[in-house]
Amino acid sequence: MNGWTDGDVVPFLQRLVPHVGRSVAALAEKWREMAAADGSGEVEVDVAEWFQEVTEEAITRATFGGSYNDGRVVFGMQSQLMAFASEAFRKVLVPGYRFMPTKKNWLSWKLDRGIRRNLTRLIGRRSEEAAAAMKAAEGEKADTGSFRDLLGLMINASQRTTRAPAAKAIPVHDMVEECKTLFFAGKQTTTNLLTWATVLLAMHPEWQERARREVLDVCGSDDPSKEHLPRLKTLGMIINETLRLYPPAVATIRRAKADVRLSDGCMIPRDMELLIPIMAIHHDARHWGQDAAQFNPARFAGGAARAAKHPLAFIPFGLGARMCVGQNLARLEAKLTMAVLLRRFQIRTSPNYVHAPTVLMLLYPQYGAPLIFRPLASQPSAADSTTSSSCPRPEFLCQD
Ligand code: HEM
């Protein structure tokens, strides 16, 4: 998936802005109606649950683009499968249990077959369309290489390699697995980022107010567009500080390709697996100073690389060749979601909120994230939406 350039990624992400913006605005509208229906004029929602809608829509659009409706069916099935997997993860592991013909296992197998069948059919149809487009473009300077969605990127790469004698096409099976990986890697991680960022805004009203003022200054009476997002610097700092304190992926793994001797004399033999403890590095006072455990977005004012004493002390998306391919999409979703919500609501923690981060593959709030949303007096009209026009600079790609 790493064969894309900034020239491909920027327009691709920009096209997603209106879709993600609309889905957050729709969510906010539901909360506003719920608040209006309640005598108190405010509403308590568990954002850890509700944000799932936003991130599922975003990853489905990013992966399938024009085939969104077909993709939605597939990812709907995968969502159910992931719910079963996370339930199983909470239980005691009984070796071999997953092969037993229990009702849940039957259902999981059926869902898995359905996902593969639907994806294979979709990939077949899209490949035929891409081949026809490529044929039609032969002899012309048409750009069939640029992509509108991630599946298209894979299909284009496969079609190009089919024509290059030494290269191999990407097998359909691999494309199916890549689509499944994108959903798995992109949905819950981003839901957790949105959740922790909103919780932190609720806990820190001074930063919430600062971010809201910035959103109103930059966006005026409009909902945020792709031109506005790069200018929301305070929000960028808040998102980075959220990723530092509550990195959704708490660790990653590497295997040494060769013997390596570290500067302190410690020897890492070839093939040894190393756990990179992202969360621990992010909380290490030697890198972040004595306030390492405190929420202080200001530490990111000079950019992510200069926030800590060591430039690689901030690695929420990993690093190197296998670094997360979805980080710009995740940042875009987070900025857009926070900006849309801050324009509409005052946010505070509910008395029912218990601060208990826990690791269940990812970093979750153990008892959910019930927050209280009070609609602000001046609300954007329903007709307001995230609009698009040309953006000169690929600033989505910077780490703020
Ligand atoms: C806040 C959200 C996210 C976080 C914290 C996150 C974190 C990570 C981390 C830590 C890795 C491992 C990198 C390494 O080992 O160096 C990774 C890999 C990956 N992520 Fe993300 N991710 C996020 C969102 C996404 C999204 C939205 C997508 C989908 C577009 C995505 C797709 C992937 C893929 C495909 C890989 C494997 C890359 C490879 O092995 O080459 N991630 N992510």
UniProtKB/TrEMBL annotation:
Pfam family, one: p450
Cofactor(s) the record lists: heme
PANTHER family hit by this protein: CYTOCHROME P450 734A2, CYTOCHROME P450 FAMILY MEMBER
GO CC annotation: membrane
MF GO annotations: heme binding; iron ion binding; monooxygenase activity; oxidoreductase activity, acting on paired donors, with incorporation or reduction of molecular oxygen
Keyword Cytoplasm: no
InterPro entries in UniProt: Cyt_P450, Cyt_P450_CS, Cyt_P450_E_grp-I, Cyt_P450_sf, Cytochrome_P450_Monooxygen
Gene Ontology process terms (BP): brassinosteroid homeostasis; brassinosteroid metabolic process
Transmembrane regions listed in the UniProt entry: none
Protein name per Swiss-Prot or TrEMBL: Cytochrome P450
Intracellular or extracellular location(s): Membrane
